[in-house]
């Protein structure tokens, strides 16, 4: 198996030693005094700090007609600390019965806590090895989206997929649902005949006749990386260890778009060491998927909005692939440390894209990211506590921390390390970091201590230049934030200026522009763009009907501001078919504050809401319906 062939005995030992000890005694940082309480994961009700969960075996049946999952979750545990109960996270689960070492047991569920769900208490003793939970999911499972055939690409068969990050695994599996708790799993999943089931594990590439699928994930992972998809799917290989799954009507386009995924894996390995998960495959989901992608091990879930026909948006796949190192291999211990997941991944993604496409291309990604960071800081407020890298999400939905602070402030902090330490030195540091923390969890303070010991050492000048406290424990964007070169965007700025001064669009020097250059061109437009200017751009470049979702979203935002009604029919089609929150929230927000578009926004939302994932519905209800 590839993972053993490339990692050897050291990795096998890491697998055996990997544990969940997420409330361990902290190593006090020399850079910042640490309150030991911050080591507690406030978003799990489980007691996985004292009862170690080793392995999960799922035996479940997916009922597409009645829209529920029912079956058993068998936990193998180690009660070395002689605890009196095992406590698991649940959310809207019906618990039918419990077996403890094969004997029926009492249990009780606590009252519902907002965001967190209900703790499931199961009596155990010092010798308990197995706990089996018989359960069924409820109608409010936040992780599950059940799609009718008409909500899929091919419109022939129903579809189910899960989204477990951040704390939604508990809505389809009774589990210790914290990023610092790792376990292996196996599964037997029964689905309607003719459909394929896939998980974040070893997968088949063919539909079987029985509707029963077996899965194995022998590497310990946290619950948020548990994933399941069921639908009328087919598979196409890319190379010997990469491939793509999609609905049959989408598979050719998906295979074309992802031609370079194998090269991405190779580029990532050249940067930061062996890919340790065996295969890397991609599943293209139906349009309602609320995210760009989800880094489920061995099987990235991704949005169809990156299928642009010209491979212009596949940096998203580089991002999800990078998670195979940052996030999946080395995991943030709590959601307060989320930047260790996403900041590292964005940095890694851009290094992959630089290796594949060149520095001018990656500079565009860095600049667009800086724009996103700046807008997020303006939106949150430059002194807002949520603009720290080290978050404080106690008593809140951890999704509140899924902002560009973790992604972009985090990645720019790493870029600063690269600039000040030198790329070669920083790369050696990251290679060692991934190797020494593989299959482990880490907090912000752990990382800062490791960085101080391995990267900074006694280099007081480097420590001063990094200005660590301001980045990690301070608000806003520090003054020493690095900026990318603007070779390509500088030219775009010149052409935008000419257009705003009256140059006809078809006279612009735009022929070789990438999607990123077009996005930068549109982002820089003034809010008072006239209908006539919009019409001239649309005539020249057919922006209202573009197949590029990133460009379309920005164009429709401009159309709302300018009340450019010729774009509205295509915008409505876009909103009715796309479920990605990154696109939906800005458009519905803009319509909700634009007097001429408020009624249109409500009408479109009422028509399209059923196509959106429950998580998207929650956020959009607040924007459109003011709930």
In short:
Helix content is 37%, strand content 19%. With 627 residues, it is α+β, with helices and mostly antiparallel strands. The chain has three domains: 51-322, Sandwich (Immunoglobulin-like); 331-472, Neutral Protease, domain 2, CATH 1.10.390.10; 488-625, Serine Threonine Protein Phosphatase 5, Tetratricopeptide repeat.
Give the helix/strand layout.
Elements: H1 2-17, E1 52-63, E2 68-78, E3 85-90, E4 93-100, E5 103-105, E6 108-109, E7 118-123, E8 130-137, E9 144-147, E10 159-162, E11 183-190, E12 196-199, E13 212-221, E14 228-231, E15 233-239, E16 242-247, H2 251-257, H3 261-272, E17 280-284, E18 293-294, E19 299-302, H4 315-322, E20 330-332, H5 339-357, H6 359-380, H7 404-421, H8 423-436, E21 440-442, H9 444-456, H10 460-466, H11 468-472, H12 487-500, H13 515-523, H14 531-541, H15 549-562, H16 568-577, H17 581-592, H18 598-608, H19 614-625
Helix pairs in contact: 3-4, 3-5, 4-5, 5-6, 5-7, 6-7, 7-8, 8-9, 12-13, 13-15, 15-17, 16-18, 17-19
Description:
This protein folds into three domains: 51-322, Sandwich (Immunoglobulin-like); 331-472, Neutral Protease Domain 2 (Neutral Protease, domain 2); 488-625, Serine Threonine Protein Phosphatase 5, Tetratricopeptide repeat, CATH 1.25.40. It has 19 helices and 21 strands. It has helices at 2-17, 251-257, 261-272, 315-322, 339-357, 359-380, 404-421, 423-436, 444-456, 460-466, 468-472, 487-500, 515-523, 531-541, 549-562, 568-577, 581-592, 598-608, 614-625; strands at 52-63, 68-78, 85-90, 93-100, 103-105, 108-109, 118-123, 130-137, 144-147, 159-162, 183-190, 196-199, 212-221, 228-231, 233-239, 242-247, 280-284, 293-294, 299-302, 330-332, 440-442.
